[in-house]
Amino acid sequence: MLLSSSLHICRHAKDGKYRSDCEAVVQKVDETQTDVQIHISSGALGQGSFGIVYPGTFKGRPVAVKVYRDTDKKGPTVVKEVCVLCRPLIRKHPNIVELLTVYEYTPRDKSCPTEFWLVLELCEGGTLRDLLRSGEEWSPLGAFHSDGIG
User: Fold this and answer.
1) 66 is an annotated ligand-binding site residue
2) Which residues bind ATP (predicted)?
């Protein structure tokens, strides 16, 4: 599969010093498995050009699940997003959504494409696009102050 075979690009930066645990993040799953720790609910939270985000639970925790379909065209985007979210400085940053795991889902019906499910921390308040279009006055510095950071 594209994602699991391409994650080696996350292991070393250009200087060769950066290492990531991205490969450990990817889990393969199919319709026959019963021990999967994720449940995806119906009713999308949002949709973009690359996928649909659904509410779900992972190990009993509320999450957002970004589902990428048609991965032949979008595979490089999925890999890039996973690699960025796996970087140690980003992975636990308080102001960046946390990537919990990635599932590579293969449907039993081989005519259906493989999907990649990015399991992300669920953030309240809608999408970033919603915030920016709301007309509400907002600034990054104000967000820092409201969080007691600045």
Assistant:
1) yes
2) 66
